[in-house]
Amino acid sequence: MARRLPITDAAAQAFSGRERERFENEMFAHLSSKFPADAEDIGEESLRNLIRTGIDKARSYSILVERDVARYVELCVAVSADFDEAPSTHEVLTANWIPAHEKMERLYGDVMDSRFSACTSCPGGVVGSAVPSPSAAQGADLCVRVMTTEKNEPIAGARVYVSGPEFRDGITDSNGLATFIKIPLGGYRVTVNDGRRYTGSGEVTVTPEGGGTTVGCRRLPTNLEL
Question: Are 156 and 198 in contact (CB under 8 A)?
């Protein structure tokens, strides 16, 4: 596993100056096109201030790549500038073991992916025109069993994240099971983290009949810093 690199002054300054001004202008044009009613209600000056706030907040969570920053700013408009203060959202954003791009895939997917389709012309490749998801109004139960790879024993109290058409998280019970009720149909990535003991991931598809998967988790080295 690659060691997590610290955020240096050089990295913090990379997204500034002319590049930042260009990005802010592109985001303003994109948001005005994608959310015309919201943009009109907010007003140009307030929308530009919201974009700057979103960029700064994204950077405070070590989100520096344009595509990920763009998604963060979109969520500031689609939800709220303070969307990061929701407990489950804040937990994802401050989880050091989750890469920045995966954080935004999860959070953005929860709010946007079930309602929009891809748009390659948007800043950073963010999502564009509204297209209703065929599975948006449907749902089925998803069961995730978390087991150790060494002894195939259930892991209780592990945090389970599922990301796809919707993002959810839960805690395994004494049998290593986490159940997600009426989750939208589609493909999901499952990630498990048990503090400093175990970690694992997998894929699962939820159909109208439901979905289920077992995620085998390996023990982390005792001296590994997450």
Answer: no
pTM of the shown model = 0.49
pLDDT digits (tens, 9 = 90+) for 82-96: 888 877 788 889 888
- Contact present, 206 and 142 (Cβ < 8 Å): yes
Q: What residue ranges do the domains of the chain occupy?
A: 17-130, 140-219
- CATH 2.60.40.1120, domain 140-219, yes or no: yes
| 22-32 pLDDT, tens digit each | 989 999 998 88
